[in-house]
Design a protein that fits this description.
- The structure is a single chain.
- The protein is mainly beta.
- It has two domains: 5-158, no CATH class; 160-321, no CATH class.
- Helix content is 2%, strand content 32%.
- It has one helix and 22 strands.
- β12 and β13 (172-173) form a beta hairpin.
């Protein structure tokens, strides 16, 4: 299954607003959910939500092609890093943009004041981002520009990875983006089978081997991501749980996916190929209730060796007791 770059939407939250007696943005935070947290990873696809930007002529505006542009509708994002505590420059990067969308949130739809407009800027964080989670991390800031007017700089933290399984896949929203080998979606009406190798699509898995230029299509053969672990939880509606660190024995037992890396032809899209166990446990629960419906019977958690993790809650063909 093919995914258009522009259709990948994520929930990184950022707010910029006018303060009393002050023009320009004020940083609130970032993250995949609430409460927001400022945490960025190499290669991560995220959406910044801002207020206080002027209206753009057309919305939405999408990147016309690859490589991704650094500016859309006069809007750009710059990320800078310095050596923490020493002030030595490490790098300054123009962040590639996938799309810019504006929504008028004021009660008067004809209002044109900047504070009326909520702007979403979907970007790819540069793979060149320096992370150092075990010692003193680089001091990292970013700024947003519109028509040459630059905002103040906002400090953010960095992480090796910020794993997020996609929940929007074509016409289907609200369920994990997981496919059979033929590219069709794993659904209640088309559950995964024992021994099948399924594909889970995600973002935020971090640096790859070898590296890929930021904002450009992933080549083939695809770069891989080391140190990704998985686990299986056949309880209904199970939440993700951090996988155990890999050991040689666990590798033999299938605690490592068949493949984890970028998806060829796409930007910042990762895939995790997971071979399911040869046998599934028997079904041992009823169909739930109207107030607590069963929406999945297997949760596959994808996690890095030390940091983030997320889960894909899917339907598989369990045996009847």
């Amino acid at each position: 299954m093919r995914y258009h770059v522009q259709s990948i939407v994520f929930a990184l939250l950022l707010a910029l607003s006018h303060a009393s007696g002050q023009s320009g943005p004020t940083f609130v935070g970032s993250g995949y959910g609430l409460p927001p947290s400022a945490n960025l990873s190499p290669g991560q696809i995220v959406t910044f939500w801002v207020t206080g930007l002027k209206p753009i002529p057309v919305s939405p505006v999408k990147a016309p092609g690859l490589p991704l542009p650094a500016t859309l509708s006069g809007i750009s994002v710059t990320l800078s890093q310095t050596e923490y505590g020493k002030g030595l420059p490490l790098g300054s990067y123009q962040v590639p943009l996938l799309s810019v969308t504006q929504t008028n949130s004021c009660s008067d739809p004809s209002a044109t004041a900047p504070q009326c407009f909520l702007t979403s800027i979907t970007v790819q964080i540069p793979f060149e981002l320096v992370v150092d989670p075990f010692t003193m991390p680089p001091y990292t800031t970013f700024a947003i520009s519109q028509d040459g007017v630059v905002s103040q700089s906002f400090a953010v933290s960095t992480a090796d990875d910020s794993i997020h399984v996609l929940t929007t896949c074509g016409a289907y929203g609200g369920s994990p983006c997981v496919t059979h080998p033929d590219g069709t979606l794993v659904l209640y009406s088309s559950p995964a089978q024992p021994g099948e190798t399924i594909v889970i699509y995600a973002v935020g898995l971090g640096a790859t081997t070898p590296s890929v230029p930021t904002g450009q299509a992933t080549p083939s053969p695809a770069p891989t991501v080391p140190g990704i672990n998985i686990n299986f939880d056949f309880r209904p509606n199970a939440a993700p749980t951090r996988p155990a660190a890999l050991t040689p024995i666990e590798v033999d037992l299938g605690a490592a996916p068949a493949f984890a890396g970028l998806t060829p032809g796409q930007v910042g899209l990762y895939q995790i190929n997971v071979q399911l166990p040869a046998t599934f446990p028997p079904e041992s629960y009823s169909g739930g209730s109207a107030f607590n419906p069963i929406v999945s019977n297997l949760t596959i958690t994808i996690g890095s060796r030390y940091f983030s993790y997320d889960g894909a809650a899917i339907w598989v063909q369990l045996q009847q007791e």
